[in-house]
Amino acid sequence: MPLRSFGFLAALLACGVSGIISGGRAAEPSQPLKPAISDEAAAALQQMGKTLLNKEVSFKAQTIRVYQDAHGQPLHIFHTMKVVARRPDRLAVNVTGDDGSTKLLYDGKTLSVLAIDKNKYATLAAQGGIPAVLDELMNKVGHDFPLADFFSDAPDKAFLSGVTAGWQVGTVTVDGAECRHLFFSQQGGIELELWLDKTEQALPRRLIVTYRMLPGQPNFLASFSDWDFKGQPADSEFVFQPPQGATKVDLGQAAAAVPGQGGSK
Fold first, then answer.
1. Nearest-5° angle of CA 91, CA 228, CA 222?
2. Burial zone of 196 (CB within 10 Å; 0-12 exposed, 13-18 middle, 19+ buried)
3. Would you say the C-alpha torsion 135, 139, 141, 142 has a positive or negative sign?
4. CA 153 to chain centre
5. What CATH architecture is 36-257?
6. Where are the domains of the chain?
7. What is the pLDDT of residues 31-44, one digit of tens each?
8. Which of 78, 179, 208, 209 has the most beta carbons within 10 angstroms of its beta carbon?
9. What percentage of the chain reaches a pLDDT higher than 90?
């Protein structure tokens, strides 16, 4: 959403948008474009932003993303993610997928990443809150975290970064809930479809990102469920304890060992 990618986290993990497919940003228009966002789409995003600013939040996400094999063939990889966050500086992400499992924990002082199947982990001294820590992690390892913008200081504005047009397509029913189906165009030939509950909370239910200017027009899909804003997670949920026999490596090695980069283990 410009949800800068959970590629390493979500995929490090498996969900933002402008970086879900590593290195896949097409050339952007040279001239500045004035966003044309309909009032109803803007209002829905503002409602979503207010909801996501809750101090405590947890949710599940099921994702499908495209990667290319050694022959350039586009293939799909699936992940299931459980996210627990407590603003401003606690985060726990557990991901399982076709290629293994990963855990990320941030306790306010240290960010830890564990490649469970490889029994390898890395740590990073980190302060400044969830957005700053995710930025630092992405800079260190060169991968994006698709859902990072959910935890920004202004989630609605983060989503609209780079967006040139947006409107409501209509309303549909998703898992029994009436939802707004929204469409957005982003610079670089990226199209975003977002489904939000048609309620005051405007919870995200689905996200699809399509890269029109990349070979094969790959896309990324995510479905969200089990939203909870009253979980009151304990401090212990964010503290990392290395498993018995785990090997500590640097972040670059941990990224290489983490699932989600496509292909089989």
1. 75
2. buried
3. positive
4. 15
5. Clam (2.50)
6. 36-257
7. 445 569 999 999 99
8. 209
9. 62
| Alpha-carbon distances of 118 from 12, 33, 81, 115, 247, rounded to whole Å | 13, 46, 18, 5, 9
Termini Cα distance of the chain: 29
Nearest C-alpha neighbor of 52 from the set 143, 148, 146, 138? 148
Residue 97's nearest CA partner among 116, 112, 77 is 77
pLDDT digits (tens, 9 = 90+) for 128-172: 899 998 888 888 776 666 678 889 999 999 999 899 999 999 999
- For 96-122, write each residue's pLDDT tens digit: 999 889 999 999 999 999 999 999 999
Pairing of strands 56-68, 163-174: unpaired
Only one residue has tokens 């983060």, namely 158
At 227, is the pLDDT very low, low, confident or very high (cuts 50, 70, 90)? very high
> 63-73: per-residue pLDDT in tens?
998 877 888 88
- Closest by CA position to 25, among listed 144, 106, 137: 144
Give the C-alpha distances (Å, rounded to integers) separating 209 from 72, 79, 96, 234: 20, 16, 21, 34
* Nearest C-alpha neighbor of 15 from the set 69, 95, 84, 86: 95
Q: C-alpha angle 194/38/164, rounded to 5°?
A: 75
Instruction: For residue 35, say if its preceding peptide bond is cis, omega within 30 degrees of 0.
Output: no
Which residues contact residue 158 at a Cβ distance below 8 angstroms, ignoring those fewer than 6 apart? 1, 2, 3, 16, 149, 152
